[in-house]
């Protein structure tokens, strides 16, 4: 492994840990993020000459801690800053409360109810997931500048309102869990299909961390159906990871995947969770319905064996809970397998205004137009999808599909 590879791996594996430690110790997300970033910058400078330390995480945490102290000392209001930090020589005694894992605790802190919902998600993706502003902007389908301002406003509000770095008590967890689930879902999605033309198409570090944190959350809230549903959804999706990218680096669509390469253990666990929720007698939530849809897909031995009527019926329930255009798009795609491409295209075209900047919308149109024999329109839709594609693997797959047009 090269030094560059070691630094990249350390950033993926240690960023959230370092930020969580500093946030708890200094009670300031700005200090935590900037000191962590400076520590990684120092690693870029020193590791090529000094070698990769035996314990990169400890080295980065210690370095970031020193950077944070240096920053506090440079502040004009030194005494106030030192008091706010609780002094840095020793960790202040603190109960970990209901959440003992530092990164999961940081998720709950970033998801404080004083912040707007979209700000909570964006801030947590940045602080815990380590995603860049550009990656987060893609997840929200907004411009990078707008996302940067959103994150800045969230940090400013935390400071202005003097929101402390505190662990939620056990009785407060259920009220905070919805925002946390949204964050974990988006972190997993970024790992499952990473954004950016120069990134790996699949970031297993992010999917693994999202699954790990969701398992911890399920231990805390074993009766929460949506926590179980999200975990099932992640497991059933992660089970297909090894079949999603070809040896040549091209994204492989569900209908072309080698299903023998799917992880049977993850599928079994995911199906068990879905059955448990169905047997509870409680009305399913968003994540439980998404997990059930994935259970149908992973139950089919072949794409042609998929029970599309059941998939569409589940999407019919989902659109009652989540009226987002992306959910409507996915329902329309499933409808195309059940009722044909003409019916599906009519549904897809109604989503043109909200989804014009979303590559999957144009990719879906291209495929439906191809099936209808409208080649010229399909080519144009593929061209638009290729322009908007998030990474090289998607671009390669779309380009191949376009070249296959008659």
TrEMBL record:
<dbReference type="InterPro" id="IPR046531">
    <property type="entry name" value="DUF6596"/>
</dbReference>
<feature type="domain" description="RNA polymerase sigma-70 region 2">
    <location>
        <begin position="17"/>
        <end position="78"/>
    </location>
</feature>
<dbReference type="GO" id="GO:0003677">
    <property type="term" value="F:DNA binding"/>
</dbReference>
<dbReference type="Pfam" id="PF08281">
    <property type="entry name" value="Sigma70_r4_2"/>
</dbReference>
<dbReference type="Pfam" id="PF20239">
    <property type="entry name" value="DUF6596"/>
</dbReference>
<feature type="region of interest" description="Disordered">
    <location>
        <begin position="75"/>
        <end position="94"/>
    </location>
</feature>
<dbReference type="Pfam" id="PF04542">
    <property type="entry name" value="Sigma70_r2"/>
</dbReference>
<dbReference type="InterPro" id="IPR013324">
    <property type="entry name" value="RNA_pol_sigma_r3/r4-like"/>
</dbReference>
<dbReference type="InterPro" id="IPR013325">
    <property type="entry name" value="RNA_pol_sigma_r2"/>
</dbReference>
<keyword id="KW-0805">Transcription regulation</keyword>
<dbReference type="InterPro" id="IPR007627">
    <property type="entry name" value="RNA_pol_sigma70_r2"/>
</dbReference>
<keyword id="KW-0804">Transcription</keyword>
<dbReference type="InterPro" id="IPR011990">
    <property type="entry name" value="TPR-like_helical_dom_sf"/>
</dbReference>
<keyword id="KW-0731">Sigma factor</keyword>
<comment type="similarity">
    <text>Belongs to the sigma-70 factor family. ECF subfamily.</text>
</comment>
<dbReference type="GO" id="GO:0016987">
    <property type="term" value="F:sigma factor activity"/>
</dbReference>
<feature type="domain" description="DUF6596">
    <location>
        <begin position="176"/>
        <end position="276"/>
    </location>
</feature>
<feature type="domain" description="RNA polymerase sigma factor 70 region 4 type 2">
    <location>
        <begin position="108"/>
        <end position="158"/>
    </location>
</feature>
<dbReference type="InterPro" id="IPR036388">
    <property type="entry name" value="WH-like_DNA-bd_sf"/>
</dbReference>
<dbReference type="InterPro" id="IPR013249">
    <property type="entry name" value="RNA_pol_sigma70_r4_t2"/>
</dbReference>
<dbReference type="GO" id="GO:0006352">
    <property type="term" value="P:DNA-templated transcription initiation"/>
</dbReference>
<protein>
    <submittedName>
        <fullName>RNA polymerase sigma-70 factor, ECF subfamily</fullName>
    </submittedName>
</protein>
